[in-house]
Structure formats: structure tokens, C-alpha cells
Design a protein that fits this description.
This protein is of the alpha/beta class. The protein folds into two domains: 183 residues, Rossmann fold (3-Layer(aba) Sandwich), CATH 3.40.50.150; 59 residues. The protein is built from six helices and eleven strands. A seven-stranded mixed beta sheet has the order 3-2-1-4-5-11-10, with helices on both faces. β2, α4 and β3 form a beta-alpha-beta unit. The longest helix has 14 residues.
């Protein structure tokens, strides 16, 4: 589940250029978990990079990707040996069918209220078998990643037709509480004009996340602060969590 800015086909291609699968440290973390599981649901699967890699690595069980963005799923469907489901957790009807649910790409941060987060985690618990695992990550609010989301840190990427696309973020100050509102602007010399997206993400801390998981019947087993499985500290960039359905 990535920013809705990437919902159309052209910007979905930009997403893959911004986050090439071969250089994504998060995929290296999640892939072994996927390969250990027999039935996996990837919530907010985006263009399907993780599940594609799992098939390429020999996973022979059930793989299912869920995402609300048609443009992202269109790219994911390049592989037809994986289930692709349009929608989000509010439309999920599975019950006790998966032994692993993953939520990558900081997708957990799109749940902006305690109720939204509780409902999402309750659904995840429902689709898991007893003893199944849920793995996810969220940015550690103490690291204040949003302070780097400024136009001066814009990046340019190339896409298939040889065009370049510039991607720039601008946070709407002041940041109030745990919600960060920002604008993403995409521009290319081949386009008639720039495209803009307004987004809001929630930076939940580890204690609040732990309480929400427990309330949904998910027991935190491990937490890490980076993709090398370093310990979670006050300055860690990530809060990476593996929880078990109890």
C-alpha cells in the first residue's frame, strides 16, 4: 500500500524506478519470512516486487497481494502465478487462511487514528491462522525522517521511454503531533505540467504500536531498528516488528 499518487500506470512506473527491487533492503529482510510460510498475504503489495521475488526464489505455496491502486496492480500482474486482489483491508473477507501477513513500504503509516489502526490489525488477526505471523515496519518518529522531505532533496529517475521524472516533497509545517502532511510533486519535461499529491502519514511510536497489536490479539515477538536486524533504539530509523497471532 503506497501513496495514492502512484495509482495511475505512468506514476506506478515512477515508483518502481524510485524503489528498484534489487536495491531494496526491506525485501531482503522480508523475503526469508515469506519463503518460510506456506500461504502469504502482502497487504499494500504495490507493484508486487516482494511476491515476484518469492516466486523467483522457489516459493511454491499460496501468494496473494492486496492493493487499492489499479496502476500498481497492473504492473504486479506481470506474473500470473500469484493472486492479485484489488482493495484494502476494509474489503478483505479472508478468514484464517494465511500463516504470514506482511505490510511493507511503511504502509502501516496510512492508518491515521487509533480506530483505523485497530480495525486494520483486527482484520489482519482474522485472516491469520492461529500462530501465524504479521511482519511490518513504520518509521521511528524519534528519527524525524520528515525533516528531510524538502524540495532541496528532490530526486530524478529515468523511466522506460527515456524520460526523466523529478520527485520532490514538501512538508506542511508545523508538524502537529504524530501526523505529517506533505505534498509530492512529480514533473517531467515530457509532461504537459507537474502532478501533485497531498498525503498524510502517522508516525506511531513503538509503545503505541505494541498496545495496538496486543489489543488485536497479536503478540510482539521481535522488533528491530534497521534492516540489518539491529536493536531498536531511540535513534533507529525504523520500527520493524514481527508479531504472532495468539
Amino acid at each position: 500500500m503506497v501513496d495514492h499518487a502512484f495509482s495511475d500506470a505512468e506514476l506506478a512506473e515512477v515508483y518502481d524506478s524510485l524503489h528498484p527491487a534489487h536495491s531494496r533492503a526491506d525485501l531482503g529482510f522480508y523475503l526469508p519470512l515469506v519463503l518460510e510460510a506456506s500461504a502469504v498475504l502482502d497487504v499494500g503489495c504495490g507493484t508486487g516486487a516482494l511476491l515476484h521475488r518469492a516466486r523467483e526464489a522457489g516459493h511454491s505455496g499460496r501468494l496473494c497481494g492486496l492493493d487499492p491502486a489499479d496502476g500498481m496492480l497492473a504492473r504486479a500482474r506481470n506474473r500470473t502465478d500469484i493472486e492479485w486482489a484489488p482493495g484494502d483491508l476494509s474489503s478483505a473477507s479472508w478468514e484464517h487462511e494465511f500463516d504470514l501477513v506482511v505490510m511493507t513500504g511503511h504502509a502501516l503509516q496510512v492508518f491515521l487514528t487509533d480506530r483505523d489502526l485497530a480495525d486494520a490489525l483486527t482484520t489482519i488477526r482474522r485472516v491469520l491462522i492461529s500462530g501465524g505471523r504479521f511482519a511490518c515496519e513504520t518509521r521511528n518518529p524519534a528519527a524525524r525522517a520528515w525533516e528531510g522531505w524538502v524540495p532541496g532533496n528532490a530526486v530524478e529517475v529515468g523511466i522506460a521511454d527515456g524520460a526523466t521524472v523529478r520527485v520532490a516533497h514538501q512538508v506542511q509545517a508545523p508538524v502537529d503531533g504524530d501526523l505529517v502532511r506533505f505534498t509530492t510533486t512529480f514533473s517531467s519535461p515530457k509532461w504537459a505540467g507537474p502532478r501533485r499529491s497531498e498525503s498524510t502519514l502517522r508516525f506511531v511510536d513503538a509503545d503505541s504500536l505494541g498496545d495496538a497489536l496486543t489489543g488485536a490479539g497479536l503478540l510482539v515477538e521481535e522488533q528491530f531498528g534497521d534492516w540489518d536486524r539491529g536493536p531498536l533504539t531511540a535513534t533507529s530509523p525504523e520500527i520493524i516488528t514481527i508479531a504472532r497471532a495468539v
